[in-house]
Write a structure and sequence with these properties.
The complex is a heterodimer of chains A (about 325) and B (about 250). By secondary structure, chain A is mainly α. Chain A has one domain: Orthogonal Bundle (ABC transporter involved in vitamin B12 uptake, BtuC), CATH 1.10.3470.10. Chain A has 14 helices and no strands. In chain B, strand 9 and strand 10 form a beta hairpin. Classes of the chains: A mainly alpha (about 325), B alpha/beta (about 250). Chains A and B meet through helix 9 and helix 10 of A and helix 2 and strand 6 of B.
Chain lengths: ~325, ~250
């Protein structure tokens, strides 16, 4: 199964490099040489885009996985807990208050707000103990709704609704060399998560069990919150919102592999990358030579998978 | 030795553990009994550093649990709470391996694997090793948690109501197992029990709590008298001798 995932990823990566309006094919690359148009396009646009898509997909899956371990609930991800909305609000603030800020600076502010959002969410579900599993993400969605309403209000008053609309639509269309490098930071967070995999599994057993095993629960939760916030912010700044991914990918992997993070993390990263890459290729080809936003495709696929998971869970667990 | 020195814990204005001084570690199996709300679970939480005391201190082998490094404590003291609900889909093998976390931090060495094998073997979990926890029966799941604690390889094992949700046979099996852990593996098992007859049959010592205080602390046989049990539970308990063993009757 692992080999299959690898082959699919490699294959779609190649496809992604050679799909587009301009003529970039192995043949044109060979003909043009290292200084030709094809080689330039490959280095400036196609390769960065493909890398960005892969890293964003992998890291969003990981963000969802870690959040699910921290909250001990299968229905949470940055998008259902208000984290994305908080980060968006942070981005709006930078646009208003510090429009000259570098991309890095914007992502930094968005990450700080994402962190704040994670913290608020964790506080809220601690203060309001909800017994039913599905109520936890509902609380998160309500929290996100409040923040999103505030964001919309501010954007409306300042005539920035268009920017807001742009962020809400995740798309890698504008990704080019020079303005995608930020996603490497999300990639770095994946590495952090990889090293802390066992700790996240133990935290997933609950605070009491983690303490019994000598783990500093608070510290692991803090690391997890930073990982989630940085991934959410960097993907938001680079591509915009990509819905459902963090929810669906870890759940599907969990069904097959289980929740031992050390074992599942590679699968989550690989499946996330594969899913986003496949959706991105569809977004680029379905109305060729035009593109439709990636978030539309991911939304359709993700919502379908999510519904399936929900219905399946109901028939089994209740 | 686990020593509680004048330990007090309050929630708001209610004192749940009231100036308790106790030591554990002298005998193989010690049972903690008492009515609901007597402070038994809170006492466990205090020993297991899940709560901090408002007064007094808890020492494990001479070290204060609030200041000793948590991971080192986890190699001498294991606390298993009641109703361990794990939502994560983990296999029995995964869970038992996590018991080695305090020793290896996740990367299992050959010694760690030995301990895991022995724990799985000891609880007869080999056939279920690859099963997910949510696919097990209550008794099997409880055994998986005990195996995890066993793999943790601690001298002191604290179990909060391990008989919860178990049927007659599994309750007896569990108590026998705790007895064996004490006798064969030289563990010091401290266990919260509601069934005083199980406590009387399998424990060396019974500590009875009521309203946050220790009201009786003696060898099992001495606690099993109508007067003591009545003062602990505030209910009529009849103690009869059957086959030379005291049996409490509290069904009528």
């Amino acid at each position: 199964m692992g080999a299959l995932l690898g082959v699919l990823l490699a294959g779609l990566t190649l496809v992604s490099l050679f799909v587009g309006v301009s003529d970039v094919t192995p043949a044109s690359l060979l003909a043009g040489g290292a200084d030709g148009t094809a080689a330039f396009l490959l280095a400036a646009s196609r390769a960065p885009r493909t890398v960005a898509v892969l890293l964003a997909g992998a890291s969003l899956g990981i963000a969802g996985l870690i959040m699910q371990m921290l909250v001990r609930n299968k229905f949470v991800e940055p998008g259902t807990t208000g984290v994305t909305e908080f980060a968006t609000f942070g981005m709006l603030l930078t646009t208003v208050l510090a429009p000259g800020l570098s991309v890095m600076g914007k992502a930094g502010v968005a990450a700080v707000f994402g962190l704040l959002g994670t913290w608020v969410f964790l506080r809220v579900i601690r203060a309001v103990p909800v017994r039913q599993l599905v109520l936890v993400p509902l609380v998160g969605i309500m929290l996100g709704g409040v923040v999103a309403a505030l964001t919309t209000f501010v954007a409306y008053r300042l005539d920035l609704l268009q920017s807001l609309g742009q962020w809400a639509q995740g798309s890698f269309t504008t990704v080019m060399a020079g303005r995608y490098e930020l996603v490497w930071l999300a990639g770095a967070m994946v590495v952090v998560a990889w090293f802390a995999a066992d700790r996240f599994s133990v935290v997933g057993l609950g605070e009491e069990m983690a303490t019994n095993l000598g783990l500093s629960y608070r510290r692991v939760v803090a690391v997890g919150m930073v990982v989630i916030a940085v991934i959410t912010a960097t993907v938001l700044v680079t591509a915009g919102m990509i819905p459902f991914l963090g929810l669906v990918v870890p759940n599907v992997v969990s069904l097959v592999i289980g929740d031992n993070v050390r074992r599942s993390i590679g699968w989550v990263a690989g499946t996330g990358a594969l899913l986003v890459l496949a959706c991105d290729i569809v977004a680029r080809t379905v109305r060729f030579p035009y593109e439709i936003p990636l978030s539309v495709i991911v939304g359709v696929v993700g919502a379908g998978l999510f519904l399936w998971l929900l219905l399946r869970r109901r028939s089994r667990a209740h | 030795m686990i020593a509680l020195e004048k330990v007090t814990k309050r929630y708001g204005s209610t004192t749940v553990v009231d100036d308790v001084s106790l030591t554990f570690g002298g005998e193989g199996v010690a049972a903690l009994i008492g009515p609901n709300g007597a402070g038994k679970s809170t006492l466990f939480s205090l020993v297991g550093r899940l709560l901090t005391a408002d007064g007094g201190r808890v020492l494990v082998d001479g070290r204060d649990v609030t200041t000793a490094p948590s991971r080192e404590l986890a190699t001498t003291l294991a606390v298993l709470r009641q109703d361990n609900h794990v939502g994560a889909r983990l296999t029995v093998g995964d869970l038992v391996e996590f018991g080695r976390f305090p020793h290896c931090g996740g990367r299992l060495t050959a010694t760690d694997r030995d301990h895991v094998e022995r724990a799985i073997d000891y609880l007869g979990l080999e056939p279920f090793r690859g099963r997910f926890l949510d696919e097990l029966s209550g008794g099997q799941r409880q055994r998986a948690f005990i195996a995890m604690v066993l793999a943790q390889d601690t001298r002191y094992v604290l179990l909060d109501e391990p008989l919860n949700n178990l049927d007659l046979r599994h309750m007896t099996d569990m108590m026998k197992l705790l007895r064996r852990m004490a006798d064969e593996l030289d563990k010091r098992v401290i266990v919260v029990l509601h069934d005083i007859n199980f406590a009387a049959t399998y424990a060396d010592r019974i500590v009875a709590m009521r309203d946050g205080r220790v009201v009786a602390d003696a060898p099992a046989r001495e606690v099993m008298t109508a007067e003591v049990l009545r003062s602990v539970y505030d209910a009529a308990v009849d103690v009869r001798e059957i086959d030379g063993r005291p049996v409490a009757l509290y069904y009528s």
